[in-house]
Specification:
Structural class: alpha/beta
Oligomer: single chain
CATH class of the largest domain: Alpha Beta
Order of helices and strands: HHHEEHEHEHEEHHEHEHEHEEH
Shape: elongated
Mean pLDDT: 86
Distance between the termini: 63 Å
Helix content: 40-55%
Number of helices: 12
CATH superfamily of the largest domain: Periplasmic binding protein-like II
Radius of gyration: 25 Å
Number of strands: 11
Largest sheet: 7 strands, mixed
Number of domains: 3
CATH architecture of the largest domain: 3-Layer(aba) Sandwich
Low-confidence stretches: 1-9
């Protein structure tokens, strides 16, 4: 009887460790959450895989990806393990409330500044703490998989089984210029004959390969853009500032330039019937433990982002 109890306790430890790795998306982060060394966690996972007769994770360059067997196991044990953990969580009426940790949110700097911060302002005022990290989408998604972030606003739909994503909003892109620059462009000729009307006008971009401009040229004009940027600055807000100052033209998301357009500081050079659109997603780890503030921020972003 003693041996069976010890085996059951050991199996429970393995399952808790498995769930920590599953939710964190990496052995390193899962070990930190479970309170074990990385080699100990690896040994526990190997023992659990031998017991089940199936592999649970695929090792990736950064983190791990759950197999279908892991998805099935997590679905079966997560509720019971979470309920068991709640039983042993101190809940004395006189005990001070344990504050929730900050919500770790990642995303593009310009989108977070223009859309994210206004959308989150009411939650911050209520006392929800949010720590924001900006960067490139691929880097942020890798940190999300590794458990270093709770949520990521992604400019592309994440791949793989470790992350789930909800459509956040559609970004519509427009070709814009300051009024004095627009006055030098034959806009009727631009609408009829395409980008030849833009000859001699400097192009402003956030990257040297002009990704947004190239996509606009291909989508709207049906032609390949073969040019170099006169200005490259890796912040779309800075590109907009340069456009407003009359440095040249650029293609920018409408949420970014709408205020400047309403104030008369920029104009849209074209109004195509089918402008380029990119969908932004809100990503989180599949099977991550529910946290009230993380869930609240996610729901609020999904509701409020569409209003900006």
């Amino acid at each position: 009887m003693v041996e069976k109890s010890a085996d059951a306790l050991f199996d429970l430890t393995r399952l808790r460790t498995f769930l920590a790795v599953y939710r964190a998306g990496s052995i390193t982060a899962g070990a930190r959450q479970a309170g074990y060394s990385q080699p100990a966690v690896t040994q526990q996972l190997q023992a659990l895989e031998r017991h089940l007769g199936r592999p649970l994770f695929e090792r990736l360059p950064r983190g791990v990806a759950p197999t279908p067997a892991a998805d099935d196991l997590a679905a079966r044990v997560s509720g019971a393990l979470d309920a068991l953990a709640a039983v042993f969580t101190p809940d004395h009426p006189d005990a001070p409330p344990v504050p929730e940790p900050p919500v770790l949110l990642g995303g593009p700097a310009d989108f977070l500044a223009v859309v994210g911060m206004p959308a989150l302002a009411p939650l911050i005022a209520e006392g929800i703490r949010v720590h924001v990290r900006t960067g490139l989408t691929e880097d942020l998604l890798a940190d999300l998989r590794a458990g270093h972030l709770d949520l990521v606003i992604s400019t592309q739909r994440p791949r793989g089984r470790t992350l789930i994503a909800d459509a956040l909003c559609d970004e519509t892109f427009g070709l814009v210029a300051a009024p004095e620059v627009a006055a030098r462009i034959d806009r009727a000729r631009l609408a009829e004959n395409g980008p030849t009307a833009l000859a001699g006008i400097p192009l402003l971009s956030y990257a040297a390969d002009l990704p947004i401009l190239r996509r606009y040229w291909r989508h709207v004009f049906g032609t390949r853009l073969d040019a170099e940027a006169a200005l490259v600055v890796d912040d779309l807000r800075a590109v907009l500032t340069a456009v407003c100052a009359g440095a040249g033209i650029s293609v920018l998301p409408s949420y970014l330039y709408e205020s400047a357009r309403a104030a008369g500081r920029v104009v849209e050079l074209l109004e195509p019937d089918d402008p380029p659109i990119n969908t932004a997603f809100l990503a989180r780890r599949h099977g991550a433990a529910g946290r009230r503030h993380v869930d609240r921020v996610a729901r609020h972003l999904l509701t409020e982002a569409l209003k900006f």
